[in-house]
Amino acid sequence: MFKNLMADNVLEMNIVSGFEMRQKAKRFEDEGHKIIHLELGEPDFTTPVNICQAASLAMLRGETHYAPPLGIPAFRSEIAKYVREFKGVPAEAKNVVVTPGAKPILYYTFQAFVKPGDEVVITDPGFPIYRVLTKFMGGKAVALQAKEENSFRLTLEDLVPLVNEKTKLVVLNSPNNPTGSIIEEGELRRMAEFLRDKDLIVLSDEIYDRLYFGEDRLVSIASLPGMQDKTIVLDGFSKAYAMTGWRLGYGVMHESIVKVFNPLIVASNSCTNTFIQFGGIEAYRGSQAEVEVMKEEFKARRDLLVSGLNSIPKVSCSLPDGAFYAFPNFRAFGKSSAELVDLFMEKAFISSLPGDTFGVDLDGYVRFSFATSRDNLNEALGRLESALKKVGV
Ligand SMILES: Cc1ncc(COP(=O)(O)O)c(C=O)c1O
């Protein structure tokens, strides 16, 4: 109904998300099956209690009114301090934009920079929202394809041929959703050198950078020479602090970009929930011990899931460097991603996401989130193996 009244770009929006798959799984759960949920990118831990207390106290003392559109000043300062210390980006409070979840930073960036005909270079495999928003704005998505034989790690050589005078935005995501791969520091430095004189914006999605399983911290491209002004850093609290439902994120960018984001915020959500921002202040000021515990657990789950997948005949899965996703290759079974996801749901009662929604030429891949218990992962591996055995090759 009302299709004749609706805008074409809205009608063409088509997202296969974890939310949708969860609905599908519900049907099977209603029939009494025990579904193992590997579809949604959501930590199964509860938010650390000190963060909950800080937000509750803020609510009780009356922090229940509108906040400034760009965020509470003390929170913006706290974020800037964190970004300086953790990411090595010399940001100040005036560079920070607080949003309800990190996703609005994506939306505002595309709204502000992508005009019809513009090209957007998108990490591929990558978060489907980048592609959806490019199309929504009338832009052209250009796939920056990471190679499986290189553990899905991007190189400068992958990027160079894709950038031209039509390129307005380059979207990088390290660690990556759905592969968990990072861009190694040496490659990132080479990319920065290549990009810094180009007339374009880099959107660096760093939402998983605290969930990197390597020894050192990851380098932010915004910290490299000549890159801070042209980079919008996206980050937030959903993943590392198990705060998906709080909706709390932020972007760090040049002041001139903050200026154009401001009216977009006022016209859409006015501001981010006031007392929630006090939870965010506590998240960065308080003990980081729980974040480390969660990360170590994700790492153990990664090892369990990936070695289990690789021990199933004809399945291969590269080792994710971070985040909580595995992106196994089931191509030897000759089935599409959609068929595989249906098979896993109907025969193994495992809910997953089709790999081909994450980019170009990815049929035969599936994304599994390992943000669930080791018991569930062990059970899932057993069920997968027997479902695949029945299918054969
Ligand atoms: C790569 C990536 N960027 C951004 C987001 C958005 O995070 P939030 O839930 O804080 O909006 C997600 C969430 O799944 C993600 O995977």
Q: What is the fourth-level CATH superfamily of the largest domain?
A: Type I PLP-dependent aspartate aminotransferase-like (Major domain)
Helix content: 25-40%
In the CATH hierarchy, what is the class of the largest domain? Alpha Beta
| Approximate shape | globular
The CATH architecture of the largest domain can be named as 3-Layer(aba) Sandwich
Helix- and strand-based class?
alpha/beta
Order of helices and strands: HHEHHEHEHEHEHEEEHHHEHEEEH
Which stretches of 5+ consecutive residues score pLDDT under 50? none
Largest sheet: 7 strands, mixed
Number of strands: 12
Radius of gyration: 21 Å
What is the average of the pLDDT values? 96
Q: What name does the CATH topology of the largest domain carry?
A: Aspartate Aminotransferase, domain 2
What is the CA–CA distance across the termini?
A: 44 Å
Strand order of the largest sheet: 2-8-7-6-5-3-4
Give the helix tally. Answer: 13
What ligands are attached or bound here? pyridoxal-5'-phosphate
Please indicate the count of domains.
Answer: 2
Care to describe what's here?
Helix content is 40%, strand content 13%. It is of the alpha/beta class and 393 residues long. The protein has 2 domains: 3-46 and 290-391, Aspartate Aminotransferase, domain 1, CATH 3.90.1150.10; 65-285, Aspartate Aminotransferase, domain 2. The strands form 3 sheets. Strands 2-8-7-6-5-3-4 form a 7-stranded mixed beta sheet, sandwiched between helices. Helix 3 runs antiparallel to helix 10 and helix 4 (73-87) packs parallel to helix 10 (274-285).
